[in-house]
Design goal:
- The protein is built from five helices and nine strands; from the N terminus they run E-H-E-E-H-E-E-E-H-E-E-H-H-E.
- The chain is α+β, with helices and mostly antiparallel strands and about 220 residues long.
- Helix 1 packs across helix 2.
């Protein structure tokens, strides 16, 4: 079954993380039923991994949908609602919202977490590739050779996406790799080794954007 990833990354409109949490939870409660009815399967919130304290300059929200038509209808509803209130988003002062679809033919993996390994660190690697075919060959070769090393370092999952391309449009070359880890130090060592092997340099046309994220403190509405 095809699924689609919606990423919302941006600067919170509120000055404190607690205020942003309340704004988020209110917006979530107001739109949850509609989102579910249109195909929203999951909703999770993250802040930068280096975040500390009561403020943050960024928030990342991930939603997984099983219908791109439902997703577009939901986004249209939010735009109409925002225009009526004179605001683009109650949560963000500025943001980058993108729809992604799984990269066909790219190796993904998901592992079970051992008991007691409760840390979750999300890593995003995003950038343009020279071509989909070339990127697929480089990506899959690297994954096959390094999956055991990644697992030993604490990986839980790896997924590759391309920016969603509407029918009739040229295929996007913007690739997003989304990794989930249970060990921050193992993750850092693995990525350093991957960079030294030239994995990133060979895969992307230019240096990609790399960021790491963790769950924020407090009770954020998720599903």
């Amino acid at each position: 079954m095809p699924t689609y990833l919606l990423t919302n990354r941006g600067t919170p409109a509120d000055k404190t993380l607690e205020a942003a949490r309340k704004t988020h939870n209110q917006a979530f409660a107001a739109s949850e039923a509609l989102a579910r009815s249109l195909g929203d399967l999951s909703h999770t919130v993250y802040v930068p991994a280096h975040h500390a304290g009561t403020t943050t300059n960024e928030i990342l929200i991930l939603d997984v949908w099983n219908s791109v038509d439902g997703l577009n209808r939901f986004l249209a509803h939010l735009r109409t609602e925002g225009q009526a209130k004179g605001q683009a988003s109650p949560l963000f002062s500025q943001r980058d919202a993108m729809i992604w679809s799984l990269a066909e033919g790219f190796h993904n993996y998901h592992f079970q977490a051992p008991y007691g390994k409760n840390d979750r660190i999300l890593a995003l690697v995003r950038g343009a590739v020279p071509s989909r075919a070339e990127a697929q060959a480089i990506h899959n070769d690297f994954m096959e050779k390094n999956v055991s090393k990644a697992r030993a370092a604490g990986t839980l999952s790896h997924e590759a996406y391309f920016a969603f391309t509407p029918p009739g449009k040229a295929e996007s070359l913007e690739l997003l790799a989304l990794d989930v880890w249970m060990d921050a130090s193992g993750m850092a060592a693995y990525y350093q080794d991957a960079e030294e092997q030239g994995g990133f340099q060979r895969l992307f046309a230019e240096a990609p954007s790399v960021s790491t994220w963790i769950s924020p403190a407090g009770e954020w509405a998720e599903r």
